[in-house]
Specification:
With 362 residues, the chain is of the alpha+beta class. The protein has twelve helices and eleven strands. The strands form four sheets. It has a four-stranded antiparallel sheet with strand order 2-3-8-7, with no helix packed on it. A three-stranded antiparallel sheet has the order 4-5-6. A hairpin with a 4-residue loop joins strand 7 and strand 8. The longest helix has 17 residues.
Amino acid sequence: MSTASEFYSKANDAFFEDDFDEALNFYTKAVEIDTSNAEYFIKRSATYSKLNKNQEALADAETALKLTEGKEDSKAIRARSFLRKGIASFALKDYYTAKLSFESSKELNPDEKSLITWLRKVDAELGKIPQKPLDSSPSTSAASKALDNSSPSPASPSSFLLKSRVRHEWFQNENYVTISIFIKNVKKDTVDVRIHNRSISVTVKLPSGSDYSLELDPLAHDIIPDESKYEVLSTKIEIKLKKANVGVKWGVLEGEDNIAGSISVSDAKLAYPSSARKAKNWDALEKEISKEKDAKEGEAALNEMFQELYKNADDDTKRAMLKSYTESSGTCLSTNWSEVKKGKVETKPPESMVAKKWNGGS
């Protein structure tokens, strides 16, 4: 009769040959013999994900976490378990749980490169949750007083949600592709930009202590790293990538480009194939951003308080904070998961302010 380790070895062989049904069969046999080996559950979770059985993948990841709970020598396995839980939760569109799981995995193993991509993906999904802008009344003092006793407005999110609010845009001319990452008041020594011939990696240490990451791999076309450069400005980080093929108009920034063309003389000054739905007046936008005033000390202090609260909270409290803040457009911050999980958190604007339905930017 085969042992659990023998079935596990056969399962690994099948997995690497992309025979996931066979791998699942052998991993299950290994689990049936030895239910105490977290490694078996982690690998079966990965197999379930390959087969798009995401609920089963989540269950196995959680089992692996229970098996390694409180064991100091299981740090690496727990990091992988949290990663599997995050991937399964992401596939199930439970982005709050996914984000918490990826962050927990990163704390245990900050060298796991795939986490940069997963955290970027989950932040992007959280950022897609519709926001409802608030109309202020003429009574500025009343509104300000109400805001002092509530959570920050959507225009000034607390620092623990900052990563999901950072945006980037790109434009091009015949020689360069320029990427702008809009983060204000970043110090140059906190920015790490690595440029390769077909990819770029950007990491920024935020004031909150967390990292913002942007990974573009592969870029749509080749670039010349030695002739590319970046600059840290007061309102943004600007990266200029020198095109290897001058005059080619990129149809997309990342991935396969099926619509590349050539830039005509009339287009040569600037072309803007960004992700925005509407064309932007970039000169006007730059002037507007440059005129923005620095954040008030009170806001900075409030952000620091939220960061400290979030850092020391348990998973349910963090999940409640993320869900309530995002769904309420920044007007509600709850730490009670038992209440928040019951349904969508409604927008509760401060006194003298009115919530308006988001119209998709039209």
